[in-house]
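#struct-help
A.M.: can someone run this one for me? Single chain, 325 residues.
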Amino acid sequence: MHLRLLSLRTLALTTHFIKISFCYRHLLAHDFDKLMHYLICYLFGLGCTASLLAQAPYSFPYNLSTPQLVGELDDKLEEVSGLSLSGTELLAVQDEDGIIFKLDVETGKIESTIEFGDDGDYEGIEHVGQYVYVVKSSGTLYRVSRAGTDDQQVDKFNGFLNKDNDVEGLAYDPAKNRLLLACKAPDVSPETRHIYAFDLNTHTFISEPILEVAREEIQAYLASCQPTAQHAAICDFFDSEEKFRLGPSALAIHPQTGQYYLTSSRGKILVVASPRGRIQHVFRLDKEYFPQPEGLAFAPNGDLYISTEAKSGEPARIWKLGMVK
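D.P.: on it. Structure tokens below:
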């Protein structure tokens, strides 16, 4: 499903209709002075509407070339696959064991662990209120209540998603009280990737995607954006002659802007989309810092945490980026 910016266009058309109606009535009354007045107002309105509809240049608020190292992760988290922030702690999962890792937000050191399930391919984690949610690549959601206590309870939710969707990203959308699940594999067209929702009020999966990331829209953005040093390499990654290789590996919603931040470990790509689904930024992450980006989390002040798996002899790490003032 494509989300379009309809409200401004509707406002613009309504404004134009009203102005034309005024002009028409005064034309019938042969009041040419007022007719000219309204025509001038109408032309001025066109200019204002064009300004409203024009997209303001987007300024990406992070310097991804100078991340701050939080810490190198314990060997138990070599395959860290999901990240979330819970107060003053980071929560993490890895893609083999049913364990929640509580990490020091300043160092990345393991403070405690919580077992919640059998071995499995766990790919995302999110803290929401009194619950911790974990998602498997099969789309199964685990809700952990009173995590780490003697009366811990684990509930499972299954829907239409399955292992063929290869779910890898999990994020909480506070505006609509829902969880978002990003699928690595295509399910409708090889040219698109979808994000689905799980309604936390009804505990149901919504079968219609809430966001579609299409190669065509990314290419349109790349054709109109200000080229950077990475531009040619990013364009090559999304070239129509090649298979659409975007594979969402992590998802998070910016707490201040509501934008979607999506990473793809394939190509080391970061995509930013507006709350209405418009592509606003595409960046290629430096493999020196992010050889395999698999986790995203935001602090309330906008600080961005990115976890990357161990690769090529280098340990798994967590990096932090503050917003550029």
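A.M.: thanks! The chain has four helices and 20 strands.
D.P.: also worth noting: Residues 3 and 276 are 5 Å apart (CA to CA).
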